[in-house]
Design a protein that fits this description.
Pfam families: FAD_binding_6, Globin, NAD_binding_1
Order of helices and strands: HHHHHHHEEEEEHEEHEHEEHEHE
Strand content: 15-25%
Catalytic activity: 2 nitric oxide + NADPH + 2 O2 = 2 nitrate + NADP(+) + H(+); 2 nitric oxide + NADH + 2 O2 = 2 nitrate + NAD(+) + H(+)
Shape: globular
Distance between the termini: 45 Å
Number of helices: 12
Protein name: Flavohemoprotein
EC number: 1.14.12.17
Number of domains: 3
Cofactor: FAD; heme b
Length: 403
């Protein structure tokens, strides 16, 4: 642990960081990529363009400043970052580079406020945090290497099948190109894919949820086509250009959005492509005796993926409920397992198995905000909520809740 003087100085900078944090992280990323353009290969540059990544980093830095003397309060945040870093093969030698440009960004943005004492304290604090991450990530890498089919970093995987699931979602089936065993994974986890797209100045890396349970036969990713640029660059390439037999670089399954070890009933709430991490959870709970309800929200039947796959699952403890926000005239609304309109408090209250239920949810940002508000309204405790969301969790309550 660092000394008390450093702790006091870093904690004292938290209010300033709240005012200037995003400006600091924007400058940081600009300088980082200017001097080390090869690092673009590891980042989702769409999140840079939209400002999401600078915002996430700023919130993380602020939390660290506030709790540098209570790191146990940051355990969940640290674990999420460790999983993300290990999926991308972040290495120890990258941390000094990041530290250099982060401190320079602090100095640039804060000017005279960034005294030598403050910069010295933050350099020490950064080293402490870097060593924390390096240690935890090395543990993940070693664990991965010892798993059947496991490896460190990225490995070549070959596309063996493509299946259209809906108008917008296509499933991609992969196996290791060297015929080694399929890496196992937990329901809800994701993998990183790196693509060398012709005409692009850097490799594009994205994380996609694994949309099927671990089966030893393949890894399945189900990708939604994003029509807007630059967000759609990778998804469009996967839909239109990646062919059976082609190879991609893929990381080990990662992520801690997984089922808790308990016997509580489960409510799964999916918005659009947010079904991808939740479907494996739904499948893995078959035959366990745990009451499980899956609410799947989508505009209509043309955008509803996996409907035949889910219908084929038979378990008296499982219930699949569909919500069509803009149904076709041919879509049958029976009011029991299919409802029309957006998700409401009364719908969740009707289908949540019990007051002790765990709730897992995933989907677009506005959908996540809506679900968060509805769970607040019916009093689902925070400890019973689990979700996958790129961005500061605080954002799920800071904007108007709408779907």
């Amino acid at each position: 642990m660092t000394n008390q003087k450093t702790i006091d100085i870093v904690k004292s900078t938290a209010p300033v960081l709240k005012s200037h944090g995003e400006q600091i992280t924007r400058v940081f990323y600009e300088e980082l990529f200017k001097h080390h353009p090869e690092l673009k290969n590891m980042f989702n540059m769409t999140h840079q363009a939209t400002g999401n990544q600078p915002k996430v980093l700023a919130m993380t830095i602020i939390k660290y400043a506030e709790h540098i003397d209570q790191l146990d309060m940051l355990t969940d945040t640290v674990n999420v970052i460790v999983q993300k870093h290990s999926s991308l093969d972040v290495r120890p030698e990258m941390y000094p580079i990041v530290g250099k440009y982060l401190l320079e960004a602090i100095k640039t943005v804060l000017g005279d406020m960034a005294t030598a004492e403050i910069l010295g304290a933050w350099e020490e604090a950064y080293q402490l945090l870097a060593q924390l991450f390096i240690g935890k990530e090395e543990k993940v890498y070693q664990d991965n290497e010892h798993k059947p089919g496991g490896f460190r970093g990225f490995a070549d995987f070959q596309l063996i099948n493509k299946v259209k699931e809906s108008e917008t979602i296509t499933s991609l089936y992969f196996k290791p190109a060297n015929d080694t065993p399929i890496p196992s994974h937990l329901p809800g986890q994701y993998v990183a894919i790196s693509l060398d797209i012709p005409g692009e100045d850097h490799i594009h890396t994205r994380n996609y949820s694994l949309s099927d349970i671990s089966n030893g036969e393949h890894l399945r990713l189900s990708v939604k086509r994003e029509s807007c640029s630059p967000a759609g660059k990778v998804s469009n390439y996967l839909h239109d250009n990646l062919k059976v037999g082609d190879k991609v670089k893929m990381g080990m399954p990662s992520g801690d959005f997984v089922l808790q070890k308990s016997e509580h009933p489960v409510l799964l709430i999916a918005g659009g492509v947010g079904i991808t991490p939740l479907l494996p959870m739904y499948k893995s709970l078959l035959g366990t005796g745990r009451k499980t309800v899956l609410i799947q929200c989508t505009p209509n039947s043309t955008t509803l993926p996996f409907q035949h796959e889910i219908k084929a699952l038979d378990d008296p403890n499982h219930q699949h409920v569909i919500g069509f926000s803009n149904p076709l005239s041919s879509d049958i609304i029976d009011g029991t397992n299919v409802f029309e309109g957006f998700l409401t408090r009364s719908i969740i209250a009707e289908y949540i198995p019990s007051a002790e239920s765990e709730v897992y949810y995933c989907g677009p940002k506005k959908f996540m905000q809506l679900v968060t508000q509805l769970l607040d309204d019916i009093g689902v405790p925070e400890k019973s909520r689990f979700f996958e969301f790129f961005g500061p969790a605080d954002e799920l309550r800071t904007e108007e809740h709408a779907q």
